Amino acid sequence: MTDKNCQKSAGNDMILSGREIEQHLGDNIKIDPFKPENLNPNSYNLTLHPDIMTYEEVVLDMRKENRIRRMTIPESGMVLSPNRLYLARTVEHTETHNLIPMIEGRSSIGRLGLFVHITAGFGDVGFKGFWTLEMFAVQPVRIYPNVSICQIFYHQICGDIEEYVSDKYQNNTDIQPSLLYKELNPEGVSTDPQLTLGFKK
């Protein structure tokens, strides 16, 4: 049955203002570290952690744990190549209750042809952890650690709330490659090897 209050508010999807985000800090919203200068009119800028990963498989397999290569973005920057997926994470650890957290790229980042997520900017009520970024460059672009890379914003939610529970991504402490294989192949992961890409070290 649809909640009457939800019916009344249909079409009025509310996004929190920057001041409202600040008022919810320590309660429904936790951002660590929090810097007031990163607060926007209706969002908060999240920054890029120096750690970054790429997959080493020629073909990514949904049913297998795909191998990854970990790198560190130096202070002098790192050039991302087109047509390759890079996994990174935010410096900030966030926790959200009674609101829907979402991330989007900053317009200045988008104007460099850099995507910071691929269909995965939608968060869940109750999510706790760092945000993994699925970065994809349209053309070669140099990135730097600790730059403001994306923005988090918060939607109000209507109806009874069941908070996010996951043995894959909840309470993560690092970049999270796809763990879809745990759903599709719960009995175990095949050990059949795939060819690896010849990255230069």
From TrEMBL:
Keyword Hydrolase: yes
Record InterPro entries: dCTP_deaminase, dUTPase-like_sf, dUTPase_trimeric
Record Gene3D superfamilies: 2.70.40.10
EC number: 3.5.4.13
CDD domains: trimeric_dUTPase
A Pfam family annotated for this UniProt entry: DCD
One biological process term in Gene Ontology: dUTP biosynthetic process
Keywords for this protein: Hydrolase, Nucleotide metabolism
MF terms (GO), sorted A to Z: dCTP deaminase activity
Name of this chain's protein: Deoxycytidine triphosphate deaminase
Gene source species: Mariniblastus fucicola
